[in-house]
């Protein structure tokens, strides 16, 4: 009996292998199109993980990973006892939470507004203008922001002084700098963020809107009782993905918009890593911070996903 079972299992494995090779050959062109993406993630995402060893070494660029001295958790202790490290974490969370609180709901509102536009030409033109800032470099955006918000010769302050009011230090005051940072981020990314929501809205059955219209529902009621409930799962997924990036922040915006007067709010994790790793060549310490950042992001992602499942959503994990 055992022999028969063993033979049947082997036969099943062989037939399974044949099926796998059959599907691979049948869909070979699709897998070939997928190959560049797989290669990209292997080369630029997985292979660099080997460099995490540096976090546990007194890394010497001339000796390399193999010849550098092991220090265990000493680098972690040094980083976690540095005040500037905790300051950068606080600023990262403040900027990310502020941006999320403004950008996330506004993105949904803009997507709903675009969906209600009936003139296709005006809709396409509006979308083009909204998407355009996303493709601008932060160097360009920072230059525009400086010309607009500079205290002495900025366009906005020039208008304020013309009206008889004192100029506002948008880029030199801590509170106003956070406001300027959030405004620039929202202007740059709000249009690009509407793409997912517009795609979800277009998938809603039009018969639902027609039935609601016949029942006397106005436009606001159709948005409230049909559109928003139908894209609720997409909103939850996008919120989870946004929350999972709370410990990550781009280098360009804080570095280009920041200055010495607002360093207590502009020094974030990415700029701190830049100053440690590139300016001071403290590769081991910068790797420790990067590893800590990734681990915390994963923990936040898991917690956000668990919370989504508790309230009845599918989550992403």
Structure description:
The protein has helices spanning 2-26, 28-46, 64-67, 74-80, 83-116, 120-131, 138-149, 155-162, 174-202, 206-214, 219-230, 232-243, 252-257, 263-266, 269-279, 283-310, and strands spanning 57-58, 69-70. The two termini are 41 Å apart. The chain has 317 residues and is mainly α. The chain is built from 16 helices and two strands.
Radius of gyration (CA) equals: 26 Å
Helix tally equals 16
The total strand number stands at 2
How does the major sheet shape up? 2 strands, antiparallel
Q: Helix coverage percent of residues? A: over 70%
Q: Give the DSSP E fraction (strand runs of 2 or more residues).
A: under 5%
C-alpha termini separation = 41 Å
Strand order of the largest sheet: 1-2
Secondary structure category: mainly alpha
